[in-house]
């Protein structure tokens, strides 16, 4: 079973990964975006870390809901509302239980990813974060590491894709040949989850 502390650690490790990789995320967002993905997420996850430190959120659902709400209110770019929705919806699915099973988390994340697809109107193949998130949740039944690997492979698979959503879609054919920054950060989040689950 996974308690609130597990989810706090996930957010802390995710924040550290975003901090470490912020420059790379911004570089990826430069040819096919507006070069702010790293700084957007750095601002967002720094705020998530502070919000969690200041709050006594004591259930998995409360931790993820607070994290999601914080991302929505601090990140101006498309990724803020999208990742915010992912975490908020996942948290809502987990309810108020003090501990949740891996199976409950798998189902909740599946619903969270569905909410991202609904909000952004994107599907796998559109060269977005969903190209990492969708294969990852499909592998969660295997293991957290398998899900993280699927996200990583999904992010790499965005390179030859033509962007159909978000800023990158304005470039049309010129979006081909670049890895999507949001799919790359999604792989970081799943990697952080696997790290925390294996610790
Ligand atoms: P912005 O594009 O507003 O500057 P970011 O740079 O922070 O925001 O985030 C860009 C990322 O958001 C993209 O790489 C893509 O993965 C993701 N994204 C953009 N639009 C959508 C959408 N409609 N659905 C899913 N993901 C999206
Ligand atoms: Mg951007
Ligand atoms: Mg922007």
From TrEMBL:
<dbReference type="Pfam" id="PF02734">
    <property type="entry name" value="Dak2"/>
</dbReference>
<dbReference type="InterPro" id="IPR012737">
    <property type="entry name" value="DhaK_L_YcgS"/>
</dbReference>
<keyword id="KW-0418">Kinase</keyword>
<keyword id="KW-0808">Transferase</keyword>
<dbReference type="InterPro" id="IPR004007">
    <property type="entry name" value="DhaL_dom"/>
</dbReference>
<dbReference type="GO" id="GO:0019563">
    <property type="term" value="P:glycerol catabolic process"/>
</dbReference>
<dbReference type="InterPro" id="IPR050861">
    <property type="entry name" value="Dihydroxyacetone_Kinase"/>
</dbReference>
<dbReference type="GO" id="GO:0005829">
    <property type="term" value="C:cytosol"/>
</dbReference>
<feature type="domain" description="DhaL">
    <location>
        <begin position="5"/>
        <end position="195"/>
    </location>
</feature>
<dbReference type="GO" id="GO:0004371">
    <property type="term" value="F:glycerone kinase activity"/>
</dbReference>
<dbReference type="InterPro" id="IPR036117">
    <property type="entry name" value="DhaL_dom_sf"/>
</dbReference>
<protein>
    <submittedName>
        <fullName>Dihydroxyacetone kinase subunit L</fullName>
    </submittedName>
</protein>
